[in-house]
Amino acid sequence: MSSNILAMMLGVSTFLGALGLLALLWGLRTGQFDDQEKFLESAKYDTEEELKDAIALEKRKKKIIQKKKKKEEKNYSPPD
Amino acid sequence: MAKVICDHCHLEFDEKVMIKDEVNGETLYFCCKGCQGIYHLLRSEGLDDFYEKVGNNKLEPPKNIHDDLHKFDLEGFKNKYIKEKDGFYEINLIIEGIHCSACVWLNEKVLHQTEGIIEATINYTNNKAKIVWDPDTIKLSQIIEKIRSIGYNGYPYDPKLQEERANKARRDYYARLLVAIFATMNIMWIAIAQYAGYFTGIRSDMKNVLNIAEFVLATPALFYTGWIYFRGAYFALKNKFINMDVLVITGASLAYAYSVYAMITHTGEVYFDSVTMIITFVFVGKYLEVLSKKKAVDAMDNLMGSIPTELTIIKDKEKSIISVEEIEEGDIIEIKPGDKIVIDGIIVNGEGNFDLSSLTGESEPVYKKEGDEILSGSICLDAVIRYKATKNFKHSMLSSIVTLLEESISKKPSIEKLADTISGYFSLVILSIALLTFIGWYIHGVGFEKSLIIGISVIVIACPCALGLATPMAALIGINTASSKGILFKEAEFLETMAKSDTIVLDKTGTITEGKPKVINSKVLHPFDKNLLYSLVKSSKHPISKAIVKYLKESDENIKEYYLSNLKNIEARGISGEYKEHKLFGGNIELIKEIGVDFDDDINSTVFVFVIDKKAVAYFELKDSLKKDAKEVIKEIKKRGIKPIMLTGDNEKVANEIAREVGIDEVHHSLFPKDKADMIDKLHKDKKIVIMVGDGINDALALSRADIAISMGNGADVSVEVSDVVLLNDDMQSLLDALKISKKAYATIKENFTLSVIYNSITIPLAVMGYVMPLIAALSMSLSSLIVVGNSFRIRKLK
Q1: Which CATH class is domain B3-54?
Q2: Contact call for residues B3 and B17 (beta carbons, < 8 A)
Q3: B336 vs A10, residue with greater confidence
Q4: Phi/psi of residue B128, each to 5°?
């Protein structure tokens, strides 16, 4: 076995592991692990409905942002 | 009468009082209009599977909706609580009335369905919510209204005060710990290959690859996780002393630097695995410390949650309900019978009796009128009163408990400080030994690499180990265990002092006794209808009336209440009323004399006389009763070689009687606050270490002079402020628990020291002689730390 293969294997596995770690750290930094009980409790209600709700919220946010942009564009009058 | 369950809140009531409702041929029962309203609302919104999710959990019936919605849209409110982000508003709320996870689900669901809300998350652990909304679509008052419409309530809090800081620290340390663990785990399996290669031979190019991989993993562990130690060491050196951080970081950095040298020059072995392991294992200890601080913050939030958050104030002749934090000096506050006062003030309108037992220790209620001062902690018994606030909420008692908690987690006990100075010298000695070892071996001619490795082993093995962890671990677990039992140690130091004490001085009223009277003797002078007396005393909330109600109920189960007219409270003396043509009076001897009734008053204790038509028909003698377990606790205290002494402002007869009952031999009676304090000084002169337990303002002076001052949680603000330990449960059992925990914690600290000294005196010589390689040193070091931590956890096992 050449050392290149070893280096590649080590590199890839460490990189993949590091990706996982980074994801975990990102989750931690954004406060997703602040609520210990949520892991068990919210699993009970995690249905398709919740997913639809989450999508609806996202859509609503986008819509509102778009509306705001439009409003700004309307108010914006280029200098003559 | 059959009991039925309300279909919304699941509380049980008599069928008679329930509201019946027919829905699709099904009969439903509701305990109130509020529950009925919510049920129908949820059904119409298609959210009725909430009831499936809630199971058999009981909910709180909705409260009357306050008329204060407008305050949420005020500019001042917005500036204080609302954050603006990309044109969206964000607020943190505590949701009141959440009982189970289904409640969280319902709140989130309802908020999600509300137009204009773009984010709503509720924490399952502490019921705190974060809501983000578009201010152009919906107003905050409408959001709050929505929450209230389903039977909950939300009030804002400022996360910047406590939570954010604690959360940030926890996240930061957790992130560092995760990186360290990741590095350690991965380095371990690379190290296995390294060790296998060491013993069976390995190609140098292979070894090189492994070295580089280890280098990549060890670097973040040392510089990211180990940053905490670099920082600690920097501050220590800047202030010209050496601490454990210096030792840890010297060992780790030396090993790292040598390994980098070995990796680049392809000579010798690398020790990156030791570097990460040293950092990781030591860091676990630090993380535990931060975690306990976060828990303390949660405990603080819970404490804050237990006090009323809103009060009625009168402004411009209009009533409004505002949160206690917003009350300023000069605001007019209205209180109703049974309300607990949370803010100090002066009465401007109304008069009534106040239960000051938690402040003064006196069980007799005190009559207060316009111009009199009322203190937070007292309870209004029988009147609607308006008073002017003279202090704001921050200076009230519960806020000071929170401050106590904060202090107790940030201050270090003196024995720990001692350990810090010892560890400073210790670090210096170890560094010198390591240096000498290195020089010694180098001169001996084993080569640079081997000498350096042995030197590093010495540093690593002596590392923070038991010594550094010995006191903080035991103190932390001691304080934690205590607080889970409702005992707050203001500083960890007091664990030690309390463990060494030999005298305990107890106040009588409110400490040994309940501070609530109980009927001990009754005599009927002329036969009469007991229901009359029952109806009369039932009308008053005075502790003496309550005691008599309880007594009458116990002696006769079938006692009935009549309708009495003209019921009146006679200030601080008794009550009167009329039944048909009969005039009824009940009260103390003063009242009896005042209305001109003959009564033989050869009684020492508190007495309540019942008079029908100017004839005394019965009297009741009342006495304060001992607290639960008082006798057993005093016995236990004596068994532990601590001498109990009782001090009281009460008269000789009462004092001696209580002392005899509870089993205390030394009693001092008829004392003024100053006398109590002098007693403590006298004990000090006899070289005693004194614990003082008290609850009232009258004890505050004595408390401040004692070595350890323990106060009851619902005691006066002042006594809580001057005391070192607060018993939140107000009972004698907590006192015994506090003693037990302090003794155990102190013993554990000593054990930990002994263990670490033994450990070091065995391992350091071995390391100096070169029998230990760095990895083994790191392992055995963490083993010793584990022993210390495990030993400290034994404090928790206390019953």
Answers
A1: mainly beta
A2: no
A3: A10
A4: -95, 140
